Amino acid sequence: xxxRALAERALELPELAxxxxxxxxxxxxxxxxxxxxxxxxxxxxxRVLLPxxxxxxxxxxxxxxxxxxxxxxxxxxxxxxxxxxxxxxxxDAVTDADVVLLPGLAVDARGMRLxxxxxxxxxxxxxxxxxxxxxxxxxxLYDTEVVARVPAEAHDRPVHAVVTPSGVRRFPQx
Length: 174
Fold this sequence. Notes:
It is built from four helices and twelve strands, in the order ααβαβββββββαββββ.
């Protein structure tokens, strides 16, 4: 239910309405569900890129072509992830995205995102910055995961918005 509400809220974002390419991710564990959003974006004709975890925790990308285009992949002792089963486009493919949907554990009032600690999306954000790419950065969370403050380091960058099942919150830089 939260996944459908999240998709509805996210689809209200002008950025997603205008976006031609969106970098998304397949939710895992207790994360808010993303499949309904990925399918809705694809139905609109949006090119949806999904990450594939590399051995060094960086991310490669592949195109989402529907639920049958996903493969369940276990990475060592980590949880299994659903990744695109088609051709890999390379880590730089994310620089073509108009919007990057980011997973997270929390986001704070400044727009700072707390990730899982693997550094994969820190690398993505650094890659975007190096390339001069300026996609809209949007975190998908539950309402209770929007908090007063999360720890932030010098390399961390704020996001433009957070989407929860109850609505959208934008941040000053957004």
